[in-house]
Amino acid sequence: MTENIINYVAHHTPWCNNHDAEFTLHTEEEPFCDKQVHCTVLIPPEGVKRERFWVYANQAFTHGRFTVEEYLAREARYGGVQLLLDQWVGKGGVNEDRSFRMTSSEARSLAAALIRAADIQQGLDR
């Protein structure tokens, strides 16, 4: 039994930062639209000079020939919110960035949990 291959035509989101007039398609390494939303400075662990979390909104850019299953998997993987851990070590050295992806619902839950933890730490617990 052969799988049905469908030709999908993707469109950029209005907030996509990954394209301009000359660059209209995304690469295989970055098959999604994204928008940088915020950067949070973290308390770095021992041996790390600087550490930050970058927050991005993501939406899959699924363009080309895929099965329905492949299409749905890409849409799920690249749609939602992404946290990118950026570590600086030594004299300007950068560790490999580490990416954390989650659904928008999970991002809202995480945001609520972070606010709750900060409130408790600062004595705002009721």
Estimated helix fraction: 10-25%
Give the mean pLDDT.
Answer: 89
Radius of gyration: 19 Å
Show unreliable segments: none
What is the straight-line distance between the termini?
61 Å
User: What spatial form do the alpha-carbon principal axes imply?
Assistant: globular
How many separate helices? 2
Largest sheet: 5 strands, antiparallel
**Beta-strand share of residues:** 35-45%
**Which sequence of SSEs, written as H and E, runs from N to C?**
EEEEHEEEH
Number of domains: 1
Quick recap of the structure?
The protein has 126 residues and is an alpha+beta fold. Helix content is 22%, strand content 37%.
Topology:
Elements: E1 5-8, E2 32-41, E3 50-60, E4 64-67, H1 68-77, E5 80-89, E6 93-94, E7 98-102, H2 104-121
Antiparallel strand pairs: 1-4, 2-3, 3-5, 5-6, 5-7
